[in-house]
Amino acid sequence: MVKAYVKTFGCQMNEHDSERMRGLLHKVGYTLTPDEAEADFILINTCSIREKAEQKAFSHLGRLKLRKAKKPGLRIGVCGCIAQREGERIIRRAPHVDLVFGTKNIHRLPQLIEKMIKTKRRVIEIYDDRERWQQFGCEIERDNPIRAWVTIMQGCNNYCTYCVVPYVRGSEWSRPAQEILAEIRDLAANGYKEVTLLGHNVNSYGRGLDQEINFPALLRAIDQIEGIERIRFTTSHPKDFSEELVEAIADCPKVCEHIHLPFQSGSDKILKSMNRNYTAAEYIDKVNMLRAKIPQAGITSDVIVGFPTEEEADFQQTLRLIEEVQFEGLFTFLYSRRPQTAAGNFAQQVPNSIKQKRFEILLEIQNRISSERNESLVGTQQEVLIEEGKALDGDGTSGREYLLRGRTRLNKIVEFTGPPDQIGKLRQVKITKANRFNLEGIMLP
Ligand code: 5AD
Ligand code: SF4
After folding, report:
1. Would you say 335 and 294 are in contact if contact means Cβ atoms under 8 Å apart?
2. Domain ranges of the chain
């Protein structure tokens, strides 16, 4: 039995690509193992969004060199965003790597492995945009039996000046609606309850397709699929976040009113220099438009601290925006200089010590806000999709006392006790306690 292990760095898009690659590995006869030490083939799916992510991938590759020295039959593959950008340079840096392929030729994995084994030589294959759509027909080995990721579009044409995505994922491309709907119908038939629609900018879904369809229309069509109980999506760009979309979210009962809407900075000067195409006031207008129609909506966001030329006054504007919007949660990033991007060449980079200090201030404020948002839920009743459970009596023989875990519509994790037959169901839960990152509650009859 030949065993394969896939290690993933980075975002949900990468996690989902790994599910696709596990499906392909399975198909060509590998047994998948969760234990890297026993694998005969190790595939590293890399992330390139910030320098730290790249360093992590390369230091992991460094450790694999020792492993390969002890186990000469071991083969190592590198794919994902670093592979797309660096191609054969990866081999120069890590000569123990046997296979390199990019983000657009995932579907070629079986042929690439065959070539690697047959020729006993290194194989490198990086595509530009050619054939990229074929990878969606692949078999997918999903990690979770209740919630599934579904790719609806990929790539990005926005060229925010800090971002490497357009270079490693290519130009924007939407998947035909019929294919997406067929995949989700199939998921429903297989017992999945929740889908998260993935794309680098889901709001621009449909551009360039023969069929006339946009993202709100797609949501309305998915909402009709029987068996699916919840629909989520990520990521949205504020400039394309429209009233038509908010109406669709309000009209579709299955679409969760949780929006991930990255704002990146509260300073108009910085937003302009980032090429984001909105001002802080316009961002807040969109938030108000959403809350006017859906008062219970929750918003999470991304923010970058220490973008080139960011001064104290710009940073204060970011803090002001955070206080005004009151996000449920915030992903906070230190600006990282990326190759190929425009901002990488900007002269006035912010010193690390200042970046770090601002980062800590911001985090402290958001931690307080997140705790307050969670506190405000104590005493309320929330709809929870129960995803997993752990026996509280040790061996689970009583079949009753389980610690169940699920998420609210706003994607907050809630824990409570109950019987295991509730896993996969939607239940009402009364919230009894709030922590910064999760909630506790009692399941209602
Ligand atoms: N430096 C720091 N953060 C970045 N992001 C993207 N590129 C960079 C960079 N060069 C952040 C943005 C984006 C999230 C996925 O990662 O906030 O929304
Ligand atoms: Fe990157 Fe901007 Fe595209 Fe998002 S919208 S993927 S931040 S270039």
Report:
1. no
2. 3-129, 133-375, 381-443
16 CA to middle of ligand 2, Å? 19
Q: Which residue, among 246, 155, 140, has the nearest Cα to 202 in the 3D structure?
A: 155
Whether the CB of 335 sits within 6 Å of ligand 1: yes
Ligand 1 pocket residue status of 234, Cβ below 6 Å: no
Class of domain 3-129: alpha beta
Q: What residues have CB less than 8 Å from 236, skipping those under 6 apart? A: 201, 202, 203, 259, 260, 261, 262
Q: From the CA of 160, how far away is ligand 2's center (Å)?
A: 6
Percent of the chain with pLDDT over 90: 89
How far does residue 173's CA lie from ligand 2's centre (Å)? Answer: 14
Q: Is 305 in the pocket of ligand 1 (CB under 6 A)?
A: no
DSSP secondary structure letters along 107-169: GGHHHHHHHHHHH-S-EEE--SSTTGGGGGGS----S-SSEEEEE-EE--S---TT--HHHHH
pLDDT band for position 66 (50/70/90)? very high
Q: What pLDDT was estimated at residue 137?
A: 67
pLDDT for the residue 19? 96
What pLDDT, on the 0 to 100 scale, is given for residue 130?
A: 66
Closest ligand, as measured to the CA of 51:
1
- CA 384–ligand 1 middle distance (angstroms): 31
Average pLDDT, the chain: 94
CATH node for 133-375: 3.80.30.20
| Ligand 2 atom at shortest distance from the alpha carbon of 166 | 8
What digits encode the pLDDT tens for the residues 173-211?
Answer: 999 999 999 999 999 999 999 999 999 999 999 998 988
